[in-house]
Amino acid sequence: MQHQLTRRHILGMIALQTAATAGLTRVGLESARAAEPAAVDNAPAIVVGSGYGGAVAALRLGQAGIRTLVLEMGRLWNTAGSDGKVFCSTSAPDQRSMWFRTRTEAPLASFLWLDVVNKAITPYPGVLDRVHYDNMSVYVGRGVGGGSLVNGGMAVTPLKSYFSEQFPAVDADEMYGTYFPRARAMLGVNAVDPAWFESTEWYRFTRTSRKAAANAGLRTTFVPNVYDFGHMQREAAGTATRSALAGEVIYGNNEGKRSLDKSYLAAALGTGNVTLHTLEKVRSVSRAGDGSYLLTADRIDDSGTVVETRQYSCAYLFLGGGSVGTTELLVRARDTGTLPDLDPAVGAGWGTNGNVMLARANHVWDTVGADQATMPVMGIDDWANPDNPVFAEIAPLPMGFEHWISLYLAITKNPERASFTYDPASGTVKLGWSAAQSAVSVGMARKLFDRINLANLTIYRHDLFGSSGKVFADDFTYHPLGGCVLGRATDGYGRVKGYSRLYVTDGSLVPGNIGVNPFVTITALAERTMARVLVEDTAP
Ligand code: FAE
């Protein structure tokens, strides 16, 4: 891994590890001595959520010497279960897999139309959640590290021209010169060794998809990742414990992946200024007469029972709950009157990054291999095609036997957007996404993959997304984006309109689509926000 660990990282990692071993739900630097930080009810700065946006905010606040409290609804994922592993495997999921479910809800629901994928589990604060709205569900990570715990690690920097199209008011030269490189370095982005890629059985599936794309005249491109490819090669050589080569990904990686608890969050804790409370869900935000923010948070136990409701206050509030987490909090605050001056643009501009999952059946001679690494390293890049811009990740489908399936997660340039609204009758926040809006993504994905099928004389698989024979999985997204769009619900730096000292730092800033997998963009934008805010806004 290119990234060098600093003393702060190491201290922070020890604190996280010791806190987990000691069963602490509050973590600070003192946790390195197995001491639980005292419960606090106020801090100069509070950060909600510990995904990419939250982790960047926590580190930069801590480095600036500002005492900061991070509130995360998920748990700390550093303790081994009875099987000696922190995370459960994808093929034999247990309670650790999903957030308070009695049955797993994996994206690929079936094989040969058979209901063989999902399993009964005990409700528990598991690491992957699927948040259901009408016509769309959103996969998110839950725990210290948010989405970094469950994602495929693809660390893609968007095309500069498309970034500028989506963020016309942001200085793209500064982003590509300063903040994208800063984000990549901090995240520990690295690339697969091309020679190893060409020769290893573990990426046969990718080479087969590359050939099929080339037969249709399409370009493929390598994409970097935050999984340590040195570790992966050692896994292949039998000198390291297998994780990416043992089918682990959506329910967490036990080895190899540089998730946020090993990068930004470890460094944040290492500053000594950051405390993290786990299993605490912020349910409302309001403002006191003196201008400070008041938060109400429910602390839950492993059964999901609320064991305590706590009040917090802070001068500076950073929202990093992710596109749906942050947007739901703010829509609720505006429409129930606790933050009535929020802009009407809060809740609007949400999209799925045009996500569609699909699979093709290859000819018998085009094998994909029984052995497949779970970290994607290549995409079909047809984004420059003005008639039908699509970037399709070549996704793994490790089943331990040859199945001749090529799986893809297509990112399409779907212009459709939806809004979140508060429903007073049910007290819930709803998303106005329609099936017709998903059909736009499907139309674009179909156009590209019809072309690939035609050139290769191959067909789609009809058996992987439930018993109905669905070919295009268009009812879920891995890439929720928008809801508090930069420059609309906020100013050009994520400062929320209508309120001072209130910031959004996560995926809700991105206007619905970014053309590639989004976490590098989210991280880089958060770096840009923090750099500006720490200089311009009065230090607490
Ligand atoms: P996120 O990482 O979701 O973090 C939000 C955090 O806030 C979570 O830990 C929540 O539990 C917590 N939270 C939310 N609400 C509250 C509340 N009210 N109180 C307390 N805590 C709260 O947000 N992206 C890529 O770039 N490359 C990939 O390869 C990739 N693969 C993916 C695969 C899967 C299966 C999934 C689900 C996603 C994938 N993504 C990928 C998307 C990526 O993980 C996602 O864009 C980022 O995690 C979003 O970062 P945020 O900071 O917005």
UniProtKB/TrEMBL annotation:
Family annotation (SUPFAM superfamilies): FAD-linked reductases, C-terminal domain (SSF54373), FAD/NAD(P)-binding domain (SSF51905)
Pathway(s) annotated for this protein in UniProt: Steroid metabolism; cholesterol degradation
UniProt EC number: 1.1.3.6, 5.3.3.1
Keyword field: Cholesterol metabolism, FAD, Flavoprotein, Isomerase, Lipid metabolism, Oxidoreductase, Steroid metabolism, Sterol metabolism
Record-annotated Glucose-methanol-choline oxidoreductase N-terminal domain positions: 141-164
This protein's record includes keyword Isomerase: yes
Presence of the UniProt keyword Acetylation in the record: no
InterPro entries on file: Cholesterol_Oxidase, FAD/NAD-bd_sf, GMC_OxRdtase_N, GMC_OxRtase_C, TAT_signal
Cofactor(s) listed in the protein's UniProt record: FAD
PANTHER family, per the entry: CHOLESTEROL OXIDASE, FAD-DEPENDENT OXIDOREDUCTASE 2 FAD BINDING DOMAIN-CONTAINING PROTEIN
Protein family membership: Belongs to the GMC oxidoreductase family.
Protein name according to UniProt: Cholesterol oxidase
Protein's organism: Streptomyces rameus
